[in-house]
Amino acid sequence: MSFVDSQRRVLSGMRPSGRLHLGHYHGVLKNWVRLQHEYECFFCIVDWHALTTDYDDVGLIADHVMDMAVDWLAAGVSPSSATLFIQSQVPEHAELHLLLSMICPLSWLERVPSYKEQQENLQHKDLGTYGFLGYPLLQAADILLYRAGLVPVGADQLPHVEFAREVARRFNHLYGREANFEEKAEAAILKLGKKTAKLYNSLRKAYQEQGDSEALETAQALLKEQQAITLSDKERLFGYLEGGGKVLLPEPRPLLGEAPKVPGLDGSKMSKSHGNVILLRDTPEEIEEKIRRMPTDTARVHRSDPGEPTRCPVWQWHEAYSDQATCDWAQQGCRSAGIGCLECKAPLIQAVQDELQPLRFRALDYEGNPDLVRGILAEGAERARDAARETLAEVRYAMGLHYR
Ligand code: TRP
Ligand code: SF4
Q1: Same fold for the pair 6-176+369-398 and 272-366
Q2: Which among 10, 254, 260, 308 counts the fewest CB atoms within 10 Å?
Q3: DSSP string, 13-55
Q4: How far is CA 368 from the centre of its chain?
Q5: Are 240 and 204 contacting, i.e. CB atoms less than 8 angstroms apart?
Q6: How buried is residue 256: exposed, middle or buried, by Cβ count under 10 Å (0-12/13-18/19+)?
Q7: Residue nearest to ligand 2 atom 3, measured at CA
Q8: CA of 367: how far to CAs of 184, 324, 377, in Å?
Q9: Ligand whose nearest atom lies closest to the CA of 118
């Protein structure tokens, strides 16, 4: 029996979409880089998820996986701090997905908002497939396989994390009960020692009778500290706090990242399909060219025409990148026609160059050395599998698949 501190485990996944852009960096990767120092992080390139929608266009998956891995590494996601791996190299994801499919009601899948939405958005393609319907369950398996308590995602993914919580709850409800669970839990309480047992009981009562979630957290912290009891007893006591039986698959919580402040080059959301991106590995010349070509306030036809920053995407970039003095300079210069648009863009070109220069530098190690990247991902898959196997052993056992 293994004990996993779920509150310290993070899992997130990204579809292999090829090279990443500044929006990914500000919205996701910077967050990951921060989290990797505080938590045990698993970052997964979800290539099977790509197949759920792009099953008819598979030629570029492998290249996209490699490009994305290089960008993760370039952004500072570090193989010595976090576990980076490819989903399909950890086949345990598929087994858990299969096992969970036995208990997942069809109606839950059908009412996930992205199901109908995506089918409507991608009308040219038949998404009436088994795989596409099961997509949120595959995502739930990605998370639950590591018993990750925390899932850093954007707002669009909240329904999927909620879905994973429901699946975990159903699983625990069905299989978390062992014979005489309550007796065993009460016996475990006695093993805590008098003082701790008393505290545990009163915190449990406060949570169960008054819904005091602080009491729940305090009790969980108290249990974590206990050295003298067995891991099984510890797990029973965790489960007993919340009622039911043992918590086999803890319910994950979303860690909502900030919405990225930098819009696309044209002021709308940065996205490859809009053609308004700066890629993390664009050259300095490409960066300069793209920013120089950014549209500005259309009222400034001539250099002598005053402009209005709030009508200009360049101004939104200043708000994201520039200090107060530069912002004041740009606003005043624009409204008085004191500066030209190229002048106004110069500090931004510099800021983006400065920001991306270390990424480009780090990428050099990997771009010319795909074997190094493959090695990192293979090692990541090994580490991920070790964690995954532990969970699966418990899941198999709980579902009656034990033949010893
Ligand atoms: N569905 C997510 C997306 O489209 C990607 C994803 C797959 C994921 N598995 C995950 C995200 C597990 C977080 C955790 O962006
Ligand atoms: Fe936009 Fe700056 Fe030109 Fe004003 S001066 S229109 S803010 S680029």
Answers
A1: no
A2: 308
A3: EE---SS-BHHHIIIIIHHHHHHHHHSEEEEEE-HHHHHHHHT
A4: 28
A5: yes
A6: middle
A7: 341
A8: 56, 37, 14
A9: 1
Residue 248's nearest CA partner among 103, 353, 348 is 103
HSE-up (13 A, CA, CB side) for residue 8: 11
With a 6 A CB cut-off, is 137 part of the ligand 1 pocket? no
Identify the pLDDT of residue 41: 98
Geometric angle at alpha carbon 274, from 142 and 122, rounded to 5°: 55
What is the 8-class DSSP label of residue 27? I
Q: Whose CA is nearest to atom 7 of ligand 2?
A: 309
For the residues of 98-124, what is the DSSP string, one character each? HHHHTT--HHHHHTSHHHHHHHHHTTT
Sequence spans of domains, the chain: 6-176+369-398, 181-241, 272-366
The pTM is what?
A: 0.88
Q: Which ligand is nearest to the CA of 143?
A: 1
Which ligand has its closest atom nearest to the C-alpha of 301?
2
Which CATH architecture describes the domain 6-176+369-398?
3-Layer(aba) Sandwich (3.40)
The CB of 330 under 6 Å from ligand 2? The reply is yes
CA distance 135 to 359: 32
pLDDT average per 10 residues of sequence, the chain (404 residues): 83 97 96 97 98 94 98 98 98 98 96 88 89 97 98 94 96 84 92 95 92 91 92 88 83 88 94 96 98 96 95 97 98 97 98 98 95 98 98 95 86
CA distance 279 to 130: 34
- CATH class held by domain 272-366: mainly alpha
Query: What is the distance between the alpha carbons of residues 158 and 256, in angstroms, rounded to a whole number?
Result: 8
pLDDT at 2: 63
313 CB near ligand 2 (under 6 Å): no
C-beta separation of 345 from 292 below 8 A: yes
Cβ count near 270 (within 10 Å): 22
pLDDT score at 260: 75
Q: Return d(Cα 123, Cα 117) in angstroms, integer.
A: 10
